[in-house]
Amino acid sequence: MSIEEGLLTVRENIRRAAKESGRKSEDIKLVAVSKFKSVDDIRLAASLGATDFGENYIQEFNDKYAALGSDGIQWHIIGNVQRNKVKYIADKNVIVQTVDRLSIAEELSKQAKKFDRVIPVLMQVNTSGEDTKSGCEPEELSELFEKCLEYENIRIEGLMTIGPNTTDIKSVEECFESTYALFESMKNFEKAKGQIKYLSMGMTNDYMLAIKHGANIVRVGRAIFGERESR
User: What is the pLDDT of residue 213?
Assistant: First the structure.
């Protein structure tokens, strides 16, 4: 499968899933997960119309950012961020999807302030119940969200989750349904009126299901780029 074929298939699947849920495909943002993929692969995908790319590791992201910049590309950090690595991304055009604790929000705001920037972020919540997944606990989200709203140099724009690692569709749906409910509840915070707009959930194995349950960002790697080689 070529990258062109992968993108065509994923876009068609997004169109179908959006139509089945009464939505428009153009309202669904596709983040092409380019972890472990080359600069040439990203450049090719960009030439085929991909605009958003997701990276997990800060050093790898920085290398690709140095080669490609952000002209026509929106970068997303979708992996766990260590506090001591925040300074390496604070000056770059990036959306951080994985804010799951106060210390990261605080550090992002602190470092962004040095560059007179406001970094858009998503709160990551663990609605799968799996210990291997990052994210704050659902019952902790409201308090964490409220505290994070106090930081002036980050802008919380929504919610992100990773679905459970299972073939049980019902379990995946329950995860996405509960995340959607949390996403809707975030919109009711007075201090966040109008800024909560993104629900990022769904990957290669479950992005169509995620769209049917309200996702408007999906993070797809293997279905576009093929299998990844380990580091």
Answer: 97
